[in-house]
Design a protein that fits this description.
The protein has 263 residues and is α/β, with parallel strands linked by helices. It is built from 11 helices and 11 strands.
């Protein structure tokens, strides 16, 4: 279920609470080792990391899941660290990849010294906290060095979603609404930027992406077709994905990457 919070210009999604148990179940897979190693082929992470940070830099992924991005960063020559609160998943990583510096931790209370990291990746984390992300942001500021970089992604209020909200296509959220199955926000990137700027970060770059998911999550009758495009691995579906991304990312991207520098 989606509800629109007009006051804060964001959407609340209610599915299943994003607890450690939820993520342990989500990341439980038979081809675990292959999925972790596939992180070295993640062109998205590599593109933006290498654009701002040289090999050898210390980088943390806060909320690292199965650790595939930590694995990829290490393969590309970075000093990579990862933390997550999904205990069973982290224990599985530690058993299979003891060389990776990944540990169980809360992104709101990190066990690292001040000004320790040159970079910090946060991929789809801040949107899952119904009480907000201030505590996460404080820790980000604390552990990142001056002039260091922060890469934050989250599902957001794209122009397409803002248009739908203005047309009244979402049910309204009331502050009195109570539910124990909050999953995530679809956040307003402009408000997120202002929040981060208050903590001494400067926005360097922003990159909306994944319009296929952005459209299929909003228009039900297109979902079956777009799901095939989203999952497809042949040349045709890859070509369609590329074309949709080229034409519609800025209008209907599901997520956005914000790159900040700590002043």
């Amino acid at each position: 279920m989606k509800l629109y919070d007009k006051k804060n210009k964001r959407i609340l999604m209610f599915e299943e609470r994003a607890t450690p148990h939820h993520w342990d179940a989500h990341w439980d897979t038979d081809n675990f080792i292959e999925k972790v190693k596939a992180g070295k082929n993640n062109r998205f992470i590599k593109k933006f990391t290498t654009k701002f940070l040289n090999p050898g830099a210390k980088i943390l992924e806060g909320g690292c899941g199965i650790g595939q991005n930590v694995y990829g960063l290490q393969q590309w020559g970075y000093q990579a660290y990862g933390v997550d609160f999904a205990k069973k998943t982290i224990e599985k990583i530690n058993r299979n990849f003891p060389e990776l510096k990944i540990s169980i931790a809360d992104v709101k209370k990190l066990n690292f010294p001040n000004n320790f990291f040159d970079g910090y990746w946060s991929l789809g984390v801040i949107e899952h906290f119904q009480n907000g992300y201030d505590e996460i942001l404080k820790e980000m500021k604390r552990v990142i060095k001056s002039q260091g970089y922060l890469f934050v992604t989250f599902p957001y209020m794209s122009p397409f979603r803002r248009l739908r909200a203005n047309l009244g296509m979402y049910k309204s959220f009331e502050n009195t609404y109570k539910a124990d199955n909050f999953y995530q926000f679809l956040l307003d990137d402009r408000r997120v930027t202002k929040d981060f700027e208050k903590y001494g970060f400067k926005l360097i770059s922003k990159y909306p992406y994944n319009p296929v998911k952005g459209i299929k999550s909003e228009i039900n009758f297109l979902k079956p077709v777009l799901q095939k495009v989203y999952d497809g691995k042949n040349i045709f579906t890859k070509g369609v994905r590329f074309l949709i991304s080229l034409l519609l990312s800025k209008f209907a991207g599901h997520c956005i990457l914000l790159v900040f520098q700590k002043l």
